[in-house]
Every structure is written in C-alpha cells, then in structure tokens.
Design goal:
By secondary structure, the chain is of the alpha/beta class. Helices cover 34% and strands 16% of the residues. The chain has eight helices and seven strands.
Length: 215
C-alpha cells in the first residue's frame, strides 16, 4: 500500500468543530465534515457534512465556530446516529487534517468504531516549507491564494466551519505536495514527511491550545 502514488491512496480530508479541549471529558463534537481526496483533488460529490447535537447547552465562547449555536444544533442528529455513517467513510482510509492530531484525539474518544489506516498532517508538511506569516490553515490558504478556489468548491460554507476547512485542507495538501516533490511521491514518502501515528498523544496541553481560528 505505501508504495503506491499518493494520489491513488485512500485519503479522506476531515475536520471537526467542537466545544474545545478546555471542556476536558465533556468536550463535545458540534460539526463534522469529510471529503475524499481522489486523484489529488477533493471529491466534493462524495462529501459528508453534518451538525451534531451535543445533547446539552453549549456556552458562547470566542473559539466557537460561527453559526454553531444552540438553536442551530437543536435538531441535529446525535453523535451516536452520525458515527456509523462516518465510520463507513473513514475506516481503512488515511485521515488528512490540519493539525490532525487535535481532531483525531476527540474523534477516537467519541467514536471508537472508527479505525483509520493512518494520519496525515498538513500542518506538519507546511512547517517543512516555513511559509512567512504563519502555518495556520487560514494563513496558508491566503499565502497560496487558494480562497477563491475553495469558496467555489465549498458552496454554502465558510472559513472556520467544518466543510470549508475540510475542502481547504484537501486543496492545501495537493499544493504542498507539488511544492515539495517535483513528481508525485509515493504514499510512503508523504507519510514519512507528514504522517502521525494513530496513538500520537495530543502534544499541546488544553490550557495552552491556541484558538481554533489560529489553526
């Protein structure tokens, strides 16, 4: 599997929006999106996106993504309803995310049936290039002038929401790969440069985590 070209590998971009690690054991998922990456491009025709009802009121906080209010989440399905559909899309795939360890930490806690093949972190890959202005998702999208492309693909979504950020991550991955390798690398090369182990502990303690809008 690892010897195949990266763009032929089973990759799926993923983003979760939640209440924040400051909630500790009560941290809740509020929104999830996944988008397959086919031939190096986001396959938006097979995108999956849903709000998630946390089954409790959530306070308004600076890092809560725009639009994720108690009213908006009230009629959304619970995570127990979402998990089987999500597992069908993620199991056996490499999960691609920006600072993917944060998403995976919460996902594996809340959805134990999800068993991906591995993790690929666009933040880790971006740090190899040292882009001026920071390595947050928003900064990188601006630096590579990708906003208009993502807006056209993520119709009805916006930055800092799960669908927009997932598509942005998929587009960013292809951009970073082209910058790093003159010809398409093997999956093994990509995972060596940007992979994280599935048992990777979250490196940043909750009290020191930046705002979601910085990632």
């Amino acid at each position: 599997m690892t010897g195949i070209p990266w763009h032929q590998a089973p990759l799926v971009a993923l983003d979760l929006e939640g209440t924040g690690a400051q909630d500790g054991s009560r941290e809740a998922v509020l929104e999830i999106a996944s988008v397959p990456i086919a031939n190096g491009r986001p396959d938006t025709s097979n995108a999956y996106h849903t709000l998630v009802n946390p089954r409790r009121p959530i306070p308004t906080r600076p890092w809560t993504s725009p639009g994720l209010t108690n009213r908006a989440l009230r009629d959304a399905p619970g995570l127990d309803t979402v998990e089987p559909a999500l597992a069908a899309r993620l199991n056996g795939h490499y999960l691609v995310g920006h600072n993917v360890g944060v998403d995976w930490r919460l996902l594996k806690q809340r959805c134990p049936s999800i068993k991906p093949a591995g993790l690929i972190d666009t933040l880790r890959l971006a740090r190899c290039h040292g882009i001026a202005g920071g390595n947050g998702l928003a900064q990188l999208i601006a630096a590579y002038d990708l906003t208009a492309m993502i807006d056209a693909l993520a119709v009805g979504s916006q930055p800092h929401r799960a669908l927009w950020d997932t598509i942005a991550t998929a587009v960013l991955l292809a951009t970073l790969v082209r910058q790093r390798w003159p010809s398409p690398p093997a999956l093994e090369q990509l995972t060596t440069a940007a992979g994280l182990p599935l048992n990777h502990p979250e490196a940043t303690p909750p009290s020191e985590q930046p705002s979601l809008f910085e990632l």
